[in-house]
Design goal:
The chain is an alpha/beta fold. It has one domain: Rossmann fold (3-Layer(aba) Sandwich). Helices cover 46% and strands 14% of the residues. An eight-stranded mixed β-sheet has the order 1-2-4-3-5-6-7-8, sandwiched between helices. α6 links the parallel β5 and β6. α3 runs parallel beside α13 and α4 runs parallel beside α10. The two termini are 13 Å apart. GO terms for molecular function: triacylglycerol lipase activity.
């Protein structure tokens, strides 16, 4: 009887209990990984299966929408989000000389090698070390954009620790895939600013450009988001270093072919930064992966697409949690 009750609880998720334990105001903390210090937040019970969220280029842990966090936590996951190195309240590589982004972009366009202070694989090692510090031996991973690329490296470095991958708005990095417009690249590269107002306005322009053409941009809401991010931490040089890491990154096609773990790929049909073919290409090279294309979704979380995103991600993660629970029983 006890086993039956436990199994029923695992399968049903006990939503009333989930609501009480999913505290989005849980305090943040720092973990020293050896190479860097990462600021993180853990939401949910330590005994729950862990789900690690990895944000994209320049993103901070506060950029995950509350609805997404609650939706994931209420499925019975311990949700862990953090600031990557060089953004937010994690370590900044201030001793590294200022990065020449223009020179790096030029070499990348010419097909030449690009020098970067660190690589995405180093960022994957940061993240694995974070989970070691938290004493989480095995976990699920959900990565967005650059975070999805870091997640790919994590699964390759430690396949015994990563239980499943959910890759959203990301890429294989292969040559020949369609790229963003020149105008969007210019917005992406504009990182410095002479004042708080200029920095916020530039971020609003970038966020609007990354949104879906099917949805009118709410400039005031974007301005509030940009202001919150600026006031928490503003490090344009750090974001430049992350961009250089992206430019220096080789194709991950062979890496993807090596993966042997449950993988869901989610991509939008209106993504202006990484067009839909990037997601299709990732799914085509991960054996047994599932692909979900969301009509109209672009390259950021927008209110109109939060429900379709959760509808794509939650059933998959729920199935992974249930399979692990049944295996333990």
């Amino acid at each position: 009887m006890r086993t039956f009750v436990l199994l029923a609880a695992l399968l049903c998720g006990l939503p009333s209990l989930a609501a009480s334990r999913c505290d989005l105001q849980a305090p943040t903390a720092q973990a020293d990984t050896g190479a860097v210090r990462l600021t993180y937040q853990s939401i949910g019970r330590n005994s729950d299966p862990a789900l690690l969220l990895i944000m994209g280029l320049g993103g901070q842990l506060i950029d995950w929408p509350d609805e997404v966090l609650l939706g994931l936590c209420r499925q019975g996951f311990r949700v862990i989000r953090f600031d990557n190195r060089d953004v937010g309240l994690s370590s900044w590589d201030e001793e590294v000389p200022q990065a020449s982004l223009t020179y790096g972009v030029l070499r990348h366009r010419l097909g030449l090698s690009v020098s970067a202070p660190y690589a995405l694989r180093d960022m994957a090692r940061d993240t694995l070390a974070l989970m070691e510090r938290l004493q989480v031996p095995r976990f699920h991973v959900l990565g967005v954009s650059m975070g999805g690329m870091i997640a790919q490296h994590m699964a390759d470095l430690a396949p015994e620790r990563v239980q499943s991958l959910t890759l959203v708005m990301t890429s294989s990095g292969a040559l020949g895939l369609p790229g963003p417009s020149e105008a969007l690249l210019k917005l992406l590269a504009r990182r410095g600013a002479d004042s708080r107002e200029m920095a916020i306005e530039r971020q609003v322009e970038l966020l609007a450009a990354l949104g879906s053409p099917q949805v009118d941009a709410d400039r005031e809401q974007l301005r509030r988001q940009a202001a919150a991010a600026y006031d928490r931490a503003f490090n344009p040089e750090g974001v430049k270093r992350q961009i250089l890491a992206l430019l220096a990154e080789p194709s991950r096609v062979e890496l993807l072919r090596r993966l042997r773990l449950p993988t869901l790929v989610v991509h939008g049909t209106a993504d202006p930064l990484l067009p839909a073919m990037h997601g299709v290409h990732v799914a085509a090279h991960v054996q047994g992966s599932e692909l979900r294309l969301i009509p109209g979704l672009a390259h950021r979380f927008q209110e109109a697409f939060k429900e379709p995103l959760l509808a794509a991600v939650l059933p998959y993660l729920r199935s992974q949690r249930r399979e692990r629970a049944l295996a333990r029983l």
